[in-house]
């Protein structure tokens, strides 16, 4: 029992740092993206900032679940707190689907009423989002199959990298072709990818 308990200590410490770094990176990016959205008047950036803010909540919930799962069983809680990982993983999925619903609503609205955007700024800021989400996801890559909530955090970040990629593509098309409606089309395509990946997890 003594050796078994110590075998988890390095992994727990490493994942705890991964969660803290991921939360910090995403909070910083949300701040930058929201500021860029306000400065340019871009609803796309403001919406994506709100979506990335769900990353922070998701990572925070996953970190809490990860810690609770490692509290040893007691006479009252003979199974410990391991059920919390399943419940919080479900909550993470719900958060992601709510974010997808917001993307879908905005996409359909923009199909009817396209909003002029500064394509270059949108593409650059969204490109930073790809880097932030990819780096954050890589923090959990090695351990994603060892814990349900670590896997949930990883999939959430990968999905958001795809969202940012779609926004980059839309920004470039808007920049060169001025097809403002393409933002809504790309958003709907990314929404389908996210729903499929969430359902599969």
Short key terms for the protein model shown above:
mainly alpha; 81% helix; 7 helices; 201 residues
Note the run of SSEs as H and E.
HHHHHHH
Total helical elements:
7
Beta-strand content bin: under 5%
What is the number of beta strands?
0
Taking the sheet with the most strands, its summary is: none
Q: Mean of the pLDDT scores?
A: 77
For the termini, the CA-CA separation is: 32 Å
Shape: elongated
Kindly name the structural category. mainly alpha
Radius of gyration: 19 Å
The percent of residues in helical segments reads over 70%
Low-confidence residue ranges = 1-10
Describe the structure.
With 201 residues, this protein is mainly α. Helix content is 81%, strand content 0%. It contains seven helices and no strands. Helix 3 packs antiparallel against helix 4 and helix 6 packs antiparallel against helix 7. The N terminus is likely disordered.
How are the SSEs placed, and which strands pair?
Blueprint: H1 2-7, H2 9-40, H3 43-68, H4 83-112, H5 119-138, H6 148-177, H7 182-200
Helix pairs in contact: 2-3, 2-5, 3-4, 3-6, 4-6, 4-7, 5-6, 6-7
What is the gist of this entry?
The chain has 201 residues and is an all-alpha fold. It has helices at 2-7, 9-40, 43-68, 83-112, 119-138, 148-177, 182-200.
């Amino acid at each position: 029992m003594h050796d078994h308990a110590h075998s988890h200590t390095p992994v727990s410490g490493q994942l705890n740092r991964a969660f803290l770094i991921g939360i910090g990176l995403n909070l910083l990016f949300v701040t930058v993206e929201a500021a860029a959205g306000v400065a340019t008047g871009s609803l796309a950036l403001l919406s994506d900032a709100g979506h990335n803010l769900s990353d922070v909540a998701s990572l925070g919930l996953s970190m809490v679940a990860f810690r609770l799962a490692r509290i040893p069983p007691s006479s009252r809680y003979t199974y410990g707190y391991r059920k919390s990982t399943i419940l919080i993983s479900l909550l993470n999925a719900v958060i992601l689907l709510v974010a997808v619903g917001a993307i879908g609503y905005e996409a359909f609205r923009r199909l009817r009423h396209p909003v002029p955007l500064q394509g270059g700024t949108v593409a650059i800021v969204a490109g930073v989002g790809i880097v932030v989400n990819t780096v954050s996801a890589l923090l959990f890559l090695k351990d994603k199959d060892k814990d349900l909530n670590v896997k949930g955090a990883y999939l959430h970040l990968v999905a958001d990298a795809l969202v940012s990629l779609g926004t980059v593509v839309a920004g470039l098309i808007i920049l060169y072709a001025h097809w403002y409606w393409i933002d809504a089309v790309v958003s709907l395509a990314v929404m389908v990818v996210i729903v499929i990946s969430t359902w599969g997890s």
